[in-house]
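ok trying again, last paste got cut off:
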Amino acid sequence: MPKDKPVYQRVLLKLSGESLLGDLPFGIDLETSRAVSLEIKEVHNLGVEIAVMIGGGNIFRGIRGASGGMERSSADYMGMLATIMNGIALQDALEKEGVSTRQVSAMEIRAVAEPFVRRRVIRHLEKGRIVIFTAGIGRPYFTTDTAAAQRALEINADIILKATKVDGVYTSDPVLDDNAEKYESIRYLDVLNQGLKVMDSTAISLCQDNSLPIQVFDLNRKGSIRDAVLGRKIGTRIY
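nice, full thing came through this time. structure:
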């Protein structure tokens, strides 16, 4: 097999809002957005069809607002709007690199994004456009992890690429526990039974029910997205 032959034709990349923070305590660091866009462009240049689901935790996280006394549905809608802001930033960064994109929002906000129409999204991917999913699935109480699983299934993605701040799934939080051990691979059921916080349980269950694999890896390692689509040994595979 050629060295740079992707093993996946269509992927869904799950990015947290924090992936755009850089060294800022809050908001969007434009240099970091550009660095992420270059990593995505590198994979796009391999001929891989890419959809991105982006979170909004760098701006506002619904569950945090709810814990502060805000009504949960209102807080979650604010979180969805935060993802749209991140989507605009990522879209701008990608298009400055010459990549054609479409932002597709689960909330109707036609000035900046298209509504989700499954067949249209698939056509965008087939035409080589990067699709950026925002606003989760447009409903409170559902995380962008769950939205990533749902959209990945709807567009027939081969895998979810979950880009995080750590290099895989561990037996416990490696930041807090020096004895935490990394899994090279782990079954969906073991993730659920052990209460591992890599993705929420609804997202894991959706993937399990539909045999959709998840690759978890460190976004901060240069070339990690590319290594994942080339099938190289990186992070942890949930199967």
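cool. The first strand starts at residue 10 and ends at 15. The first helix runs from residue 30 to 44.
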